[in-house]
Amino acid sequence: MKIRLSLLLAVALASAVNVHGQTIMTLKECVQAARKNNISVKNSYNDLLMAREQQKYARSKYFPTVGASAFHFEATNHLIKYSILSKEDLAELSEGADEPLSSDLFTLNLIKKGSSFGITALEPLYTGGRLTYYNKLADLQVEARAMIQDVTDNNVVMSTEFLFYKIVELHETDKTLDAMEKSLANIHQDAVNIYDNGLSNKNDVLSVELMQDELSSLRIRMQNSCRLLRRALAKHIGMADQDIDVDMSFDADIVAPETLRMNTQSALFNRTETQLLDIYVEKSVLERKIAKANMLPVVVMGGRAGYSKLFSEWNGNIIGFVGVQMPISAFWSEKKEYKRKKIEEQKANDFRKDNLELMTLEIQDAYDNLESTYRQTQIAEKSVVRAEENLRICREHYRGGLSTMTVLLDAQRQQQQALTQRNSAISEYLQAKTRYLIVTGRSTY
Question: 3-state DSSP call for residue 316?
C-alpha cells in the first residue's frame, strides 16, 4: 500500500510539473505580450522617448543662453607701456645733466597680471524664424514617432497572429493525422481479415501499411515544425525562456466579407500611414523655410556682469550689448541649399502621391484576399463533407468486394487533403481578416 501510494504521488507530481511547466496562451494574451515585450515595439517606444527629449532641447533654445567664465593671467612684461616724454623732450632735459636721463623714469608700466570672472547672458531677438521652425520640426518628430509606434504595433499584431494561427493549423493537422491513423488501423484490420479469408492478396495489406508509414513520417515532420513555430512565437512575444503553446479553445469567427467592407477612400485617410505621409511633406516645408532663414541676419541681445582686477583693486562692471550678424559670404551657399530644399519638398509631395496610390491598391488587394480566403473556407467545408461521404462509400464497397484497396486508399488521401485544406483555409481567412481591418485603419484589439 505504501509503495502504491508513493507511485501515485510521484505520478501526480510529474503531471503537475508538466502542466505548470508549459504555458497555454490565448491569442489575446500573445498579442498583449508581444505589444509589451517585442523588440520592435521596445525600439519604437525608445525612438519616441528620444524624440520627446529632442523636443525639450529645441524648446530650451527660446530661453537665454547663460554662461560663466573666470580667468587669471601673468605676463613676463607689462602689457601697456606709455612714455610721457618724446625722445626730443628727453634729449633736451638730458643736456645739462651729468648723465643722460633714462627713458624708464618717464614711462608708465601697466597691467602685468590680472584676474576676472563674470556671467554672460545672450538672448536671440531675431533669427529669421529658425527657432520657431526648429521647434515645429521637433513637434512633428514626436508626432511621427507616436504614429510609427502604432504602425509597428499593427505589424507585430499581424506577425503574432500569423505564428499563432500556424500553430493552431498544425495542431488541427495533428488531430487530422491522428484520426487518419485510427481510420487506417481499421482499414488495415479489414485488409488483414479479407487476406486471411483468401479473398485478396497481400498487396492490399502492404499498401495500407505503406500509407501508415507515410502518415507517421508526415506527423513527425509536422510535430517538428510545430515545436519550431512555438519557439518562434515565444521569442516574438518576449518569452523565449518559456515553453508555451496556444489555446485551441477559441471561436474562429468567419463572417462574410461584405460585413467588413469599408469605402476605399475613407479607409485610406483613416490610416496612420497617410498621416505620416502628411507629416513627411510638412517636414520638407519646414526644412525649406529653415534654409531660407539661414540667409537672414541674426540679432542678439546680451549682457555681462563681472568683477576684474587689473590694477590694485577689484572693480565690478555690468555691460549690455546688441549684436547683428549678417551671413554675407555664406549667402550664396545658403541660396543653393534653399534651392535644394525646394526640390526635396517637391519630391516629398510626389512621394506622398505615389504612396497613397500604392496604399489604395493595398486596401483593394486586402479585400480581394479576404473574399478569396472566405470562398476557400466555404469550398473546403463542402470538400470535407464530400470526402468523408466518398470514403464511407469506398470502404463499404471494398468490404463488399466491389472496389479495390487502391480506390479506398485514394479516398482516404482525399479526406486527409480535404481536412488539411480546411484547416489551412480557416487560418488564411483569419489572417486576411486581421490584415484588412488593419489596412483600413481599424484596430483589431
Answer: strand
For residue 194, give the C-alpha cell.
479479407
Residue closest to 149 by CA, chosen among 283, 268, 46, 32: 46
DSSP assigned state of 295: T
Angstrom distance (rounded) from CA 374 to CA 381: 11
pLDDT score of 193: 81
| Cα–Cα separations (whole angstroms), residue 109 to 50, 77, 114, 264, 269 | 58, 9, 14, 88, 80
Low-confidence residues of the chain: pLDDT under 70: 1-21, 84-107, 199-200, 444-445
pLDDT in tens, 367-387: 999 999 999 999 999 999 999
Asked if 295 contacts 338 with a C-beta cutoff of 8 angstroms, the reply is yes
* Maximum alpha-carbon separation in the chain: 161
**What confidence score (pLDDT) does residue 19 get?**
43
Cβ–Cβ under 8 Å, residues 26 and 247: yes
> Phi and psi at residue 294, in whole multiples of 5°?
-65, -15
Cβ atoms 360, 268 nearer than 8 A: yes
